[in-house]
Amino acid sequence: MNIEQALIDEHSKAQTMRIIDYIGKNQKRFDELIRIFLESDYRICQRAAWTLTHFPETSFNLFEKHHEALISMLNRTDVHDAIYRNIFRVYVDLTIPEDFEGLIYDCALKFAAIPKYAIAIRANAIHVAAKIACNYTELQQEILLVLEELELEPSAAMKGRCKLVRKMLDQKKKGSNN
What we know:
Structural class: mainly alpha
Largest sheet: none
Distance between the termini: 52 Å
Order of helices and strands: HHHHHHHHHH
Shape: globular
Number of helices: 10
Radius of gyration: 17 Å
Number of domains: 2
């Protein structure tokens, strides 16, 4: 399968699953998807990003050598919002290596706090930042301050995500008190 051509030919959940099945646990094929994600025009890049969000947990090890590239995409200003949304969506589920926690936390907090970004980006970003903060007591207060601002938003999606993040932080707090 030519992954790039498959992304060009069809944008559907079925096509996404065909691409994921083709890649499987093959690092070289996954690297090709990442290359397409990083180097293609914005439409194909969006489709590659969407495909990345659908990888099963059993394949998360394929991401290991690509954290720097994903973080660099978060620091660019010339990409479509869908790229940011999908990268944060990946990090909601992905185990974040300790070496990259600081960089990802900073990016996530920045995106969460800036109202110009779409709700989905900000909701995923605060989730990722809170996930990292769960491991660092000193960061949890910072997350709570940002949550107070986000909870003022009229969006039901943002209110729901804030509630989930608070619950996640509360559970971590309760777990560390036992």
